[in-house]
Amino acid sequence: MEVKQVDLKHLAKKIESHQTTGQDMDKVTIDNPSLTVEEAYEIQKMCIDYKEERGDRMVGWKMGLTSKAKQVSVGVDEPIYGRLTQSMELSDPVLPLENLIHPRVEPEIAFVLKKELSGENVTPRDVWMATECIFPAIEVIDSRYKNFSFTLVDVIADNASSTKFILGDQAFSPYHTAWDEMGVAMFRNGELLHSGTGAAVLGHPVRSVAMLAKMLSREGQTIKPGQVILVGGFTEAVDVSDGDHIEVRYDQLGSLNLRVEG
Ligand code: OOG
Ligand code: MG
Predict the structure, then answer these.
(1) Any idea which fold 2-261 has?
(2) CB-based neighbours (< 5 A) of ligand 2, an ion
(3) pLDDT tens digits for 3-17?
(4) Which end of the chain has fewer CB atoms < 10 Å from its terminal CB, N or C?
């Protein structure tokens, strides 16, 4: 019997076009139930190659589904990673809705490294020795799948729903505060929707960076100096629509704001 080979390139082209045009699509696992996690990461990488061919540039990584709240809300119970590019970074606290499908925002922090991190034995101590600074951050995710519904393989292939992110202007020393104890509170139009602490992210956000290095080592990849790493949402994400104003207050770091415009 002939075994049908999954055409990863074809799937990557398709997903990447939906990422660019902001049209929703059926889950890739519907027509390709045998797709593996490894193949999904290959598709993710190919999508970024297509973006780079058009002049975009990779600037870092994101971890996703590192908190229980996030895992429960999307029904996928293991951490994943995605790739961040230059065009995803917002330079002003304004989110244009053009080419987005059903965006959600999450309170995060981002590590920026001064030294390369590699290998499957990376520890929190290694991460501290390699970290230059930490920023408060907001991530905007937007699944390309209908109804924001997916399996583990689908969401990996769709670059872990990566869409936009913004970092605060002020960088902080890694020793500024205890990042697991740091509280965040997320407001939409003045209403408090979610709050949590850094401990929600794998017990301590530093563990998310260590886990990323380990996951990348399986693909022979490393985290490079200067790369941004979003550690994963501290709380559930919130839906946003035209005219919304998001404020995230971080203990000891100030606030980040995002205005949503149609
Ligand atoms: C997957 C991406 C999750 C996070 O911070 O947990 C994520 C999704 O929820 O669509 O970015
Ligand atoms: Mg996130």
Answers:
(1) Fumarylacetoacetate hydrolase; domain 2 (3.90.850)
(2) 106, 139, 233
(3) 557 899 999 999 999
(4) N
